[in-house]
Amino acid sequence: MTVFDNLAGQDAAIAVLTRAAEAARTGTVGMAQSWLFTGPPGSGRSTAATAFAAALQCTGVEIGCGECEGCSLVMAGSHPDVETLASEVTTISVASVRELVSRAQATPTLGAWRVLIVKEADRMLERTTNVLLKAIEEPPPRTVWILCTPSPRDVLATIRSRCRGLNLVIPSAEKVAALLVRRDGIDPERALIAARAAQSHVGAAKALATDPEVRERREQNLRSAYGVRTTGDAIIAAKALVDRAETQAKSTGSGRGEKEEAELRRTLGLSPDERVPPQMQGQFRAIAEAAKKRETRQKRDALDRALIDLLSFYRDVLVVQLDAGTELVNPDFEAEIGEIADSIVPVKTIETLDEISLARERIGANVAPLLAVEAMMVSFRR
User: Measured between alpha carbons, how far is residue 201 from residues 105, 121, 161, 184, 297 in Å?
Assistant: First the structure.
C-alpha cells in the first residue's frame, strides 16, 4: 500500500505529485518548492499534502512506497523534518507562522527535505500572510512549503503567484466507498450509503459508517427540518440543532483545557487547589482563552456539517420535484423527501437552499449561531 492509496479518485493529482517527487529524488528537473493544494472540503487536501511529504522523504524503490522509514514516520506524524501547522481556532496567528518560518531555515536532519505544511491557509489574515510571503518566495535549498486551502481565491494573489497550484476534486461516492472497504474493512453497502450521505467527504463518510452517535446526530438534524410546520416548530428545532452542535463541540474537546491547566499547575509546582499567584495568572488566562477559541471553532464546524446535511436534504427534494433522475444523497429519507417535494413548489425549495447557505455565511461572519439558525428554520415552514 503506497502513501497515495488514501487519496480516493485523485489519479491526476497523484501523477503530478509522483513526478515531482521523482524529480526531487533524481535532481534531473527542478521541482517547485512552494505548492498550493486546493479543493472543496472532503477532496483530501491535507491527506495529499501528507502523502507528498512522505513521497519526498521516501527511500524505497517505488516513490511513496509506504513501507520505508521515511514514509512510515511521515504517515505516523513523527518525522522530524515534516511540520504541520493546523489552526484549532478561527484564525492562524502571526506568532505561529513566524515560528514556522524560523524553523523552515533549518536543514533536514533525517530526510532529504524539510517540509512545512499549512492546513487551512485561508484562515490566515492578510498581515499573517505577509509574514509567510518571503519564505515561500525564496525557500532554502532543501525546504518545501505546502499550503492547503479550498480555493485559490482564499489566499492573496501574491501567494498564488509564488506557488505551484494543484487542484483536487471531489471523488465519486463509489470510489470513497471502495477506499473505506479496502482501508477500514467497512461493509460495502454501509460504506456506499455513508459515502453518499457525506457527499464523498472521506472523513465524514468514515465517521457515519463507524460511529453510531454521528449517524444519530445526522438523522436528528434531517428530521428537524422535516418536522417544521409552524414558527414555533422552527424555534424549537433551531435550539435543538444548536444544542447538538454544542454537545458535539464539548465532547470533541474532551476536557483538554482542564488537562492543560493541570499540567501547568504541575510544572509551576502548584497543587490542584492552591490559589494561583498574581504573577502566574496570565498563563492560566491564556489557557482558558485558547480553550474557549477551540470550542468556538469546533461548534462552528459541527454547525456547518449539520447545515451541509440540510443542504443535501433539500437538494434531494429539488431532484424529486424536477424528476432529474439522479441518485438521492439521502436515500434513507426517501419517504420524507417525497412528502416535502409534494407539499411545496420548486421555487420554495430553491429559496430554502438559499436560506441554508445564508445561515452558513452568517455564522462564518460571527452572527450569533442561534439567531442565524432560527431565521433559517423559519424558512422551512410548510
Answer: 35, 19, 29, 15, 19
Catalogue the E-assigned strands of 236-356: none
Please give the distance of CA 189 from its chain centroid, rounded to a whole number.
Answer: 25
Euclidean distance between CA atoms 168 and 161, whole angstroms:
18
Given a contact cutoff of 8 angstroms between Cβ atoms, the answer to whether 44 and 168 are in contact is yes
**Mean local confidence (pLDDT), 204-213:** 91
In this predicted structure, the answer to whether residue 321 has a pLDDT above a threshold of 80 is yes
Average pLDDT over residues 70-96: 87
Go through 165-193 and write b for each residue having 16 or more CB atoms within 10 A of its CB, e for each that does not.
ebbbebbebebbbbbbbeeeebeeeebbb
Burial of 195 per CB tally in 10 Å (0-12, 13-18, 19+): buried
CA distance 246 to 223: 18
Average pLDDT, the chain: 88
Task: Give the percent of the chain with pLDDT over 70.
Answer: 97
Question: Residues 295-301: contacts with CB within 8 Å, 24+ apart?
Answer: 295/249, 295/250, 295/253, 296/89, 296/90, 297/87, 297/88, 297/89, 297/90, 298/248, 298/249, 298/252, 298/253, 299/245, 299/246, 299/248, 299/249, 299/369, 300/90, 300/363, 300/364, 300/369, 301/249
105-132 pLDDT per residue, tens: 888 999 999 999 999 888 888 888 888 8
Beta bridge partner(s), residue 38:
149, 167
Cβ-based neighbour number of residue 96 at 10 Å = 16
Strand partners of residue 164: 35
C-alpha span between 367 and 324 (Å, rounded): 35
Q: What are 332-362's pLDDT values in tens digits?
A: 899 999 999 999 999 999 999 999 999 999 9
- Give the pLDDT mean for 197-207: 89
The Cα–Cα gap between 45 and 167 comes to: 9
